[in-house]
Amino acid sequence: MKRYKKWIIGLVVLLLGGAGVIWYLFNLKYDDTATVKADYTVNAMDFIKEFKQDMAAANKKYSEKIVTVNGTVSAIEMADTTANIKMTDTTNGAYIIFAFQQQHLAEAKAMKEGEQVSIKGSCSNGAFSDILETEYITFKRCAVNK
Amino acid sequence: MKKTILSLAMVLATGLLFAQKKTTTSAVISFDATTPIDALPKAENKTVIASLDTKSGAIAFEAAVKSFAFSNPKIQEHFNSKGWMDSDQFATASFKGKINNLKEVKFNKDGTYPVEVTGDLTMHGETKTLDAKGTITVKGKVIVAASDFSVKLEDYKVSGGAIAAGKVAKEPTIKVVAEF
Predict the structure, then answer these.
(1) Section B132-150 average pLDDT
(2) Which one of B79, B135, B166, B169 has the fewest beta carbons within 10 angstroms of its own beta carbon?
(3) Which domain holds residue A101?
(4) A66 and A128 share one domain
(5) So what's the pLDDT on residue B8?
(6) Partner A contacted by B179 (CB < 8 A)
(7) Which residue has the higher pLDDT, A66 or A20?
(8) Are residues A38 and A20 part of one domain?
(9) Which range is least confidently modeled, A111-120, B1-10, B36-45, B151-160?
(10) End-to-end CA gap in chain A
(11) pLDDT-derived band at B2, boundaries 50, 70, 90
(12) Among A29, A64, A79, whose Cβ lies nearest the Cβ of B66?
């Protein structure tokens, strides 16, 4: 009986542990980007230049990393229920675009064209657009860097 | 004479305004692959590039796969992994098509016009012809193209344990909204 007890307790502990891990994974959420430390801090135009020079190497370095980008707002694009901020290299049309986290949308909407800003977000990747015939770099889950 | 020239100039200007290829870098594509046993696999990409040629009816989209934002980091990781979208190798998904019933859309008159679009959808390195229904809404100078459709993941060679286990829908629904 004692031996069975041990087995039953072991099984219950195992089941509870497994359920806990599943519950934890299902309920994982991204942190507020404003509170996350950036892996890199860059100047917008230098950042674009780095992607234009070697897209593969830049993607390897920055993709899915938290990056703070300092630069000038070239456009605020209202998209469906959201607002994106753009920084554009006017010499060639290449651009960076930032999609904001829901809780930081008001910060994006308050920005003005020509304003110097610092934005922190998760760099998705850079690519060449066949439609626009230029390079672009996309960010998600952004916040104003304070 | 002056009036004629002015009228002609206005007609030309209006023609140019509505004939040009319109683009946006902030179209939104959302997809929903949730199932009764998993409500997590759904995401939104708010930085999609889109174009619409009001003269020819050509319509195109380009979406960076890694720009699809999930609420759960683990699902985001799975989505981009080799077993799913393999976004390191297939970084973008794209659509190039045409509005079949372009004559029924009056870009110079406010209204919502039902459209049928046919084109090639490329994702995960596979290209398939897609027919989709949607709408073009004209309001002043703003044109909004929208469509809801579904795709079979197996057509694009997207497979994996989560799909087989019923945690990810075999035919996710996709919603596209582009404001020009």
Answers:
(1) 95
(2) B166
(3) 33-144
(4) yes
(5) 56
(6) yes
(7) A66
(8) no
(9) B1-10
(10) 63
(11) low
(12) A64
Confidence of residue A21 (pLDDT cuts 50, 70, 90): confident
A61 has a chain B CB within 8 A of its CB: no
The one-character DSSP state at B134 is E
CB A126 within 8 A of CB A136: yes
- Rounded CA-CA distance B22/B35 in Å is 37
CB contact under 8 A, A124 and B50: no
- In terms of Cβ atoms closer than 10 Å to its own Cβ (0-12, 13-18, 19+), residue B2 is exposed
Cβ–Cβ of A80/B179 closer than 8 Å?
Answer: yes
Cα angle B101-B106-B107, degrees, rounded to a multiple of 5: 110
pLDDT for residue A82: 80
A68 plus A121 within the same structural domain: yes
Query: What CATH number did the domain enclosing A88 receive?
Result: 2.40.50.140
The CATH number of the domain covering residues in B21-179: 2.40.128.110
Query: Which pLDDT belongs to residue A75?
Result: 96
Q: What is the DSSP string of chain A?
A: -HHHHHHHHHHHHHHHHHHHHHHHHHT--PPPGGGSPPSEEEEHHHHHHHHHH-HHHHHHHHTTSEEEEEEE--EEEEETTEEEEEEE-TTT--EEEEEEPGGGHHHHHH--TT-EEEEEEEEEEEEEETTTTEEEEEEEEEEE--
Domains: count for chain A: 2
| C-alpha–C-alpha distance, residues B171 and B93, integer Å | 17
Q: How far is A47 from chain B (nearest CA, A)?
A: 18
Q: What is the pLDDT of residues B97-138, one digit of tens each?
A: 999 999 999 999 999 999 999 999 999 999 999 999 999 999
